[in-house]
Design goal:
Elements lengths: L15 E4 L6 H8 L4 E4 L3 H9 L3 H7 L6 E5 L7 H10 L5 E6 L3 H5 L10 E4 L5 H4 L5 H7 L3 H4 L4 H18 L7 H12 L4 E2 L2 H8 L3 H13 L3 E4 L15 E4 L2 H7 L8 H23 L4 E7 L5 E8 L3 E6 L11 H9 L4 E6 L5 E3 L2 E5 H7 L9
Parallel strand pairs: 1-4, 1-5, 2-3, 3-4, 11-12, 12-14
Antiparallel strand pairs: 6-8, 7-8, 9-10, 10-11, 13-14
Helix pairs in contact: 7-13, 9-13, 10-11, 11-12, 13-14
C-alpha cells in the first residue's frame, strides 16, 4: 500500500539531504521516483564494510561513469567519512546530483555535515498526512496506530508498533553506544511519554527515571537526533505579557507515542487520547511547514498566568492560532485562550479543532472538525481556510 500512495514531498533540483525516521518511506519514495539513480545502500553489510574501509571508492566509482547521474547514498550516517568525498565531487562540478538519506543526524553533526552547508539542502520526509491518504484516512485509527508508512501498510500494524521502539533502542542507540545504561534509557522512553503534548520539565522526568537532569537532557537530544521527537518553542514575538520559557515535547508520530505510553488502571483513556490528538495535529503542522519549504514555523503560546494556545503557525504566508479539544461539544471556556491571543494579535486567524461534525464561527473563532482540518492541510495550496 505504501508504494500506491503518492507523497506530497517535492524534491529540490540540486543535491539534498533527505532525513526522516525509520519507516517514513524514504527508500521507497526514492526507488519509485529515481529508478535510474546510482544506489549505495549502507544498510547492506558488504557496502558498509567496503565504504567504511575506503570512502574514496565512491570517487573511483563515479568517475568511471560517463553519464552524469543522480547518486543516492542511503543511510549516510553509517559512514560519515563519505561526506568529504561528496563535498570534493560537488566542488569539481562534475554534474552529479547527490541525495543523501539518513534516519539520524547525530554522527553527521559530529563529523562535519556543515561541510556541505549551502551546497546540499536539508529536507525531511514525514509520516503520512491526511491529505495524502485521502479516503484512506480515518481519525480513529490514526490516533491509535499513527501514520507511519511502515505501520500503515503492515498486515498487523499493532505488532509493528510494539517492535518499533525496541528496534530503535537496539539498532540505533545500543549499537552506536549512544548511552551507557540502556535500562535507564528504556525507562526514560516511557517517562518522557507523559510529557507528550505538555510543557517539558526535565527535572520531573529525571525524578521519574531516577537519573540526573543532565542525563535526561542528553537523552532528549538523542531522541531529536534520531528524529523520534521534536520540541515546539513558545511564541514570543512582540509579546505584551510575561510568557513561560519551557518548550513543549512531542513524539514524531501519534502511534509511536501510544506505543511508548504506559497504560494502567489509573490512566484515564481520554487523557491519553487527548494527547494523541494534539500530537497528531502537531505532526501534520510540522510536515505541512516542512513541505512548504519552511516558510512558516510552529510555536505554542502560554502566558505566565496560564492562558495557553496549543499551536501558533507564523511566517510569510499565515498567522494561525490553533486550539485542539478532544470533545464533540464546544464550551464557552474552550474559546477563552484563543480570544485572549486574538486580543494581543488581532492580525491572527483563530481556529478551534474538535471532534464534532459541524464547521461553526464562534466569537471570531472558526471551529472546525479535526479530521476536516487535517484533510484540508495541503502543502500544495496557498489558501486553505
Amino acid at each position: 500500500m505504501e508504494t500506491m500512495i503518492p507523497r506530497l514531498f517535492t524534491p529540490p533540483k540540486h543535491s539534498f539531504f533527505l532525513f526522516g525516521p525509520r519507516g517514513t518511506g524514504k527508500s521507497t519514495w526514492l526507488r519509485k521516483n529515481m529508478p535510474n539513480a546510482v544506489w549505495i545502500d549502507l544498510l547492506e553489510a558488504d557496502e558498509f564494510r567496503s565504504y567504511s574501509a575506503r570512502p574514496e571508492r565512491l570517487k573511483e566509482l563515479l568517475l568511471a561513469i560517463n553519464e552524469k547521474k543522480t547518486v543516492v547514498i542511503d543511510e549516510i550516517q553509517k559512514v560519515p567519512a563519505l561526506l568529504s568525498v561528496v563535498h570534493s565531487l560537488i566542488e569539481r562540478k562534475l554534474g552529479f546530483r547527490f541525495i543523501l538519506t539518513g534516519s539520524s543526524s547525530r554522527k553527521l553533526k559530529k563529523t562535519g555535515a556543515d561541510l556541505l552547508a549551502g551546497r546540499v539542502i536539508r529536507q525531511e520526509l514525514h509520516p503520512f498526512m491526511a491529505v495524502e491518504l485521502g479516503r484512506k484516512f480515518a481519525l480513529a485509527s490514526a490516533l491509535k496506530q499513527g501514520l507511519l508508512p511502515l505501520v500503515f501498510s503492515a498486515p498487523d500494524p499493532g505488532a509493528v508498533l510494539r517492535t518499533y521502539a525496541s528496534l530503535y533502542v537496539r539498532e540505533e542507540v545500543q549499537a552506536e553506544g549512544l548511552v551507557r545504561n540502556i535500562g535507564n534509557f528504556s525507562r526514560f522512553l516511557e517517562a518522557i511519554s507523559f510529557s507528550h503534548g505538555a510543557l517539558l520539565n526535565t527535572s520531573n522526568v529525571a525524578r521519574e527515571c531516577e537519573v540526573e537532569r543532565k542525563v535526561v537532557e542528553s537523552y532528549i537530544t538523542i531522541l531529536e537526533d534520531l528524529l523520534l521527537a521534536f520540541r515546539v518553542p513558545v511564541f514570543s514575538k512582540k509579546a505584551k505579557r510575561a510568557l513561560i520559557k519551557h518548550s513543549k515535547f512531542y513524539y514524531f508520530d501519534a502511534g509511536v507515542y501510544r506505543s511508548m505510553r504506559p497504560c494502567g488502571t489509573l490512566d484515564k483513556p481520554e487523557e491519553i487520547e487527548g494527547a494523541a490528538l494534539e500530537g497528531l495535529v502537531a505532526q501534520h503542522l510540522m510536515a505541512w511547514s516542512s513541505y512548504r519549504w519552511g516558510k512558516n514555523k510552529v510555536y505554542f503560546w502560554r502566558t505566565a498566568s496560564g492562558s495557553e494556545v496549543d499551536f501558533v503557525v507564523y511566517g510569510e504566508e499565515v498567522f494561525w492560532a490553533i486550539e485542539v479539544k478532544n470533545t464533540s461539544k464546544i464550551r464557552p471556556e474552550d474559546l477563552r485562550s484563543l480570544r485572549s491571543f486574538k486580543s494581543e494579535y488581532p492580525q491572527s486567524s483563530a481556529f478551534l479543532l474538535y471532534r464534532g461534525k459541524e464547521r461553526l464561527m464562534k466569537d471570531n473563532v472558526l471551529c472546525i472538525p479535526c479530521d476536516e482540518f487535517l484533510a484540508s492541510l495541503d502543502p500544495g495550496k496557498t489558501k486553505l481556510f
